[in-house]
Structures are given as structure tokens and as C-alpha cells.
Amino acid sequence: MSGCPIPKFTFHATLIALSLLALSCEEKIYQTINGPGSLDDPSVLPAVVFTLPPANSIGPYPDLYIKDCVANYCPSYLQLQVRFNKYMDVSSVRRAIGLETTSGNIAADSGLISVLGGDLFLVSPVDSNGNRITGNFRIGETFTMTVDSTARDIHGNSLTQPFRMTFVPEPYFRARSTTPADGAGDVPTSATVSVRFNGRIDGSILDAVRLYPDAGGYWSINPDSTMASYGWLSSNGSLKNSTAYTITVDSGAADRDGNLLPETFVSTFVTRPFVVTSTTPRNGEMDVDQGTAIVVNFNTRLDTSTVRASISIDPPVDGIFQLYSGLASFYFQPLEPLPKGTTFTVRIDTTLRSANGAYLLEPYEFAFTTTDFRIVYVYPPDGWGDVHPLYPLSVSTNALPDYSTIRGSIHIEPPLGFEVTSWPGDNSFFIYPDHYLAVSTRYTVTIDTSLRSTEGMRLASATTFSFTTAPLAAISAEPVPGSENVTLTEQVSVGFNAEIDAGTAEAAFSISPPTLGLIYTAGTTVSFSQVELAARTLYTVTIDTSLEAYHGGGLQKPYSFSFTTGSFGVIGTQPANGDTGRPVNYIIFIYFSGNLDTSSIAGSYALRDSTGALVPSGFLYYRQNPWEFAIDPDANLEPGTLYTVTISATIRSKGGSMLEAPYIFSFRTAR
Fold first, then answer.
1. What is the pLDDT of residues 172-217, one digit of tens each?
2. 3-state DSSP: the chain helix, strand, coil percent, rounded to 5?
3. Rounded distance, CA 648 to CA 87, Å?
4. CB count, 10 Å around CB of 393?
5. Contact 429, 406 (CB under 8 A)
6. 224: Cβ–Cβ under 8 A, 6 or more apart, which residues?
7. 342-353 core/surface letters (b: 16 or more CB in 10 A; e: else)
8. What's the rounded Cα separation, in Å, for the pair 618 and 603?
9. Number of neighbouring beta carbons within 10 Å of residue 535
């Protein structure tokens, strides 16, 4: 036929690859065929021009089988091809294609007929249950494929004459494939060895299946009864390295139905040599930790009796080998941390043997270098901004530093006094400035090479890091901004991120509405104490930009917060309301939520007995506790008597607030 003929595709390739090839052929057809005779020429009547397998042929046909993998399951399915000389009406072709066998259990399913390019149809046969056919066909069974005259091209022309062909997929008993594949090289010694046949087999075939040289295992039949596999009784069994193996199946071997292998089957493969696959540390690796273990991995299990004598380390290292039968690696743990800044070379000579008797083909060497004494972390990290001026600086090394060398190795610009602290056994040390760091300042810290480890190693190279401190800012406040029901004696304070210049605090602080109090500073805090707050009042505290830090640097914007006070009232008494058994010589204390205006105490209280009679009493007031006073009866109280105390609303706080209602409580004396 003219144009691009469809070759005998190798269907181990994917369907996508076939699609691309077919489409490329179509493009070629369009370029070379124009007018009469082209695939879309209405004057040309449709006919079958190509099939795979070829019409009226005898297999086997390895190109008919495609793999359709789902997860790790990859069954081989039969796929047939029919090509026409015209672009065809797909629905009519799917209905027209038929398939049958001498056993009558195989058919064509129109739902499993696909088309490529309009002229090439792919047919996937199904069994009597509608399942796609895998590669296990009855040996000697004949297939018949037909295309009846109802098949039409895209112009409505019917097939010139019905098409019929026969083929025999499996004419004789044979070995279809092996694992490893025939001719494979660099095969792992742990590889599975098997032979898959095109017919069901039983144990009688095992006498005809051989592996040479023998690897100490045995052949067995797999559960699907089409494959013989080679295995070992012991988990330590394996193929030998660097060995050419031959799988043979003798001629005359038979399947379950008595079909005979017509000739001896031979397949070969070669295993990979015994080699190192990886090491820890890696060859050439730098900055290896002192506590590292040395691990060497191989591609085959080891004869552990040969490991110790085959390994050398330069410079020598005392350590313990960890060796386990059945593993393809060994583990060497040094007894002491490896010296810093040292290059070690590990050599494995050819006396090392695998469990199956193979030797290394040549010595194997790898080298690594332990880390120098160096700084591994600093705080603040280099380049940081907005660093909190109150935090200490910290430096961590990869080995214990010699404390006596720390201070002399530290240089800070701009200069400042500092102290150094560290914990025993800790690789870190801390730098505490004599005063907190200045705000909005760039500092540069250098740790020079005079710093030593406790092992006497100098720092490999000087380390310098820079950072910038944050501007002066408020970081806390009391009472909590926005809080309510604040007591009238609450101290007001604002905490900052740097030490405060006390001389600027008083002018920078204000409270609204104004109230009496004392402003003072302590380190990073500005406080307003001995306050006389009014009840149920919204207060706003402001620190303006005249506030400065001890080392200079002012507040960049005013800081304000607000809170609301609670009512002026009694917050406790002694005795408590309802108490009994009180001594007759008892003094009665009343506690308030604010400091008292002492001028309002007299006449604000009354102590009465159970008859309502007023008990003559004075009062006591202590300046150290300005929020309380005590009622002191002129004489001892009567035993077993109920007394009632009334605090009238005339009593006032120092800020001028009054009780919202009289406060009354009672107690009973002891009998």
C-alpha cells in the first residue's frame, strides 16, 4: 500500500508511544497523498490492508502482548491490530469486528476496541466472563478474526468484501521469559530467578530446569502454575558475585497437558561484582562530627569473619565493630570522640569476603575530615535588627570552650563593659553587658582565634557578627491596658526595653485626670506610686517623647494606655460577717479599696449590741496601712452577744470618693 505502512509494533512499548507513531504516519500520508487514493477519498472503497498478527500465520507473536500496569501488578494482555485503507466510521467497525477460537471461549468486546488516526483499530480480546485475555493461551488453539461488510468508511461506503483471517498465538509449549532477562548484566545477587512458560506446569518439569553454576538452592512451582522459581531454604542464600549464570530447560519437558518443549531453552545473565555501595561519612566529607560512627555498606551480605582484618584506619582509631550475620554492612564506633581538624583514611583491602565467597576486586578507600574548633551559633544572628537591648549575647561552639580564654577573645564595638558566664559541660557562653545595650545602635562582636577548646585547639577562624538594637519602646504596663475595676491604690507602671534615664522620666509622665502620686524609675521601669485614684474613673497614662534611655535614644512616639477604676468600698472585715466565738476584748478592722481620708473616719461608724444600743467606741488608724481603720470599743464586749457594725456612706477615700451605700456586718462574741 502507499503512504506510511504500520510496522510490526513492539507492544512492550506504551499505548501512548503507539499513538504518537500512528499520528506521525498520518501526517506523512497527508503530505504525500493528495486527491484520488487518499484515506479520505470518497471514490475509494474501504478494505482491510494490514493486520497484526499477519493473516493466516502461526506464532508465537511476542509483539502482540502489552503490559497494563496498576500499582506493582503488570499483567500482559493480547492486543490485535486491523488497519484499513480509509478513515472508517468507528461505531460500525466496532460492531463489525468478530473474534472466535476453536474452544469458543474468546470474543471481541466492542467496548475494548480503540482507534488511532481513524484507520487503525486495536482489538483487546475478552474471555467468556468479559475479562481481558492475558498471555496464557491454549497451546495449538486457532483464532479466527473477521470484519463483516457492515463496516463503513466515513463516506458511508461498506467494506468491499467481508474479511476473515486465522492465526495461532501459541503453536507449541515454550518458555516465554526469564527473570533476570536473557543477557542481563550487573544483576544483584539477591535477584529472583524464574522461568515463565506459556502453559500450566507441575512438579514433573523441575527435573528439566537447571541453573548453572548451582547456587545452593532449589526449583519450585509458583502458585499460578506457569512459572518455576529458584529459591533458598535459608534467608542467607543468594547468587554469587561476578558470576555468569545459565538457565536451561531441557527439550522434551512437558506441561500438564503433555505438550513438549521442542528444543532446549537457554537464557543467561551475569551478576554484579562484590563492591562498596556507600559509606558514612561520605568520601571527601568535611566538618564531620567528632562522635560519628563509620558505616560501610555493600551490595552483598558479608562474611563477618573477614571484616576486622581487612579494615585499617589512618591515623589509628580504637573502637568497636558491630557485625551481624546476614547484613550487607558493618558499623565501627570509636571509643572516644575523634580529634578535631583531622583527616582519617579508611582502607578496605581485598581480603574482605562476601557471604557467598566473593572478594573485593580491588581495595577501597575513602577519607573524611573532622570539624575544626569553631563557632556554630551566635545570638543575635548576624544582620538581625530590632534586637531587644535587655537580652544577653550568646555564643555556642562545637566543643567545650576553655573558660579562661573566653573573655580575652571577645571584642565589642562600640565598646562596653561586660561579664561572661557559662555552665559546666556546656558548649555555650553568655555575654552580659554591665548596663543594658543602647537602643537604636549597631553593635559588632568579634570572637578572635585566642579562644581555645578544653582540648587546647584554637578557634579555626575569627567569627564576627553584627546586629542593631531596637529603638526605645514600651513593652508592658500596669494596670493592664483596658482593664476595669482597678483598685484605687493600684500602682501605675510602664516597662521599657532599655534602662531609663531617671532624669527624663518625671517630665515625660502624665496621668489624666490628674491625681496625686510619686514618680520614680527603677532600671527599665517608670512607676507612679502612692496614688490617690478616684472611683469609677477612666484614667489615661501617657509617656511622651522626652523620655530617654540611659545610654541615649528617646521614645520615638508617645505611649498611652487607659484603665478604669472600680468603686470605693469595703473589701474585707475582721471579724468577717457572720463570725462567732470572737473574744470580748476584740478590736474590729475594716479594709477599703482605697486609701482613707482620715478626717472622714470619725462619725462614719457605729457598733451596736443586740438591743440596738450604741456601744461607745474609738478608732485606730495606722499610716503604714492607709486603706484600713480599726474600731476599738471603750470596754470589753458582752459574752455570747450579737453585735452589728455599720459603716456609713459619709466615709471617703483620699481621692474624694464615697461609699455608694452603707456597709453592715455582724458577729457574735464567745460565751
1. 999 989 999 999 999 998 899 999 998 899 999 999 999 999 988 9
2. 10, 40, 50
3. 111
4. 22
5. yes
6. none
7. eebebebbeebb
8. 10
9. 20
Residues listed for the chain: 671
**564: its cell numbers:** 478604669
Give the whole-angstrom CA distance, residue 543 versus residue 548.
11
Contact assessment for residue 526 and residue 493, using Cβ atoms and an 8 Å cutoff: yes
For residue 180, give Cα distances in angstroms to 40, 269, 481.
48, 7, 78
pTM: 0.53
The answer to whether the beta carbons of residues 404 and 457 sit under 8 Å apart is: no
Angle (nearest 5°) at CA 73 between 70 and 79: 75
> Is the CB of residue 185 less than 8 Å from the CB of residue 211?
no
Q: Cell triple for residue 18?
A: 503507539
Query: Are 551 and 640 contacting, i.e. CB atoms less than 8 angstroms apart?
Result: no
Are the CB atoms for 108 and 97 separated by under 8 Å?
A: yes
Mean pLDDT of the chain: 88
What's the pLDDT score for residue 425?
Answer: 87
Q: How many other CB atoms sit within 10 Å of the CB of residue 278? A: 13
Q: Decide: residue 507, CB within 10 A, 0-12 exposed, 13-18 middle, 19+ buried.
A: exposed
Element (H, E) at 422: strand 418-422
* DSSP at 362: S
Residue-wise pLDDT for 296-323, tens only, equals 999 998 999 999 999 999 999 999 999 8
Q: What is the DSSP string of 237-299?
A: --PPTT-EEEEEE-TT-B-TT-PBPSS-EEEEEEEPP--EEEEESPTTEEEE-TTPPEEEEES
Q: Hey, what amino acid is at 257? A: D
In the sheet that holds 57-58, the strands lie side by side as 57-58, 163-168, 143-147, 97-101
> Taking 70 as the threshold, does the pLDDT of residue 60 lie above it?
yes
What is the Cα gyration radius of the chain? Answer: 49
**CB neighbours of 197 closer than 8 A, spacing ≥ 6?**
173, 174, 175, 176, 205, 226, 227, 228, 255
If we measure between CA atoms, which residue out of 39, 5, 35, 36 comes closest to residue 22? Answer: 5
Nearest Cα neighbor of 225 from 263, 253, 195, 185 is 195
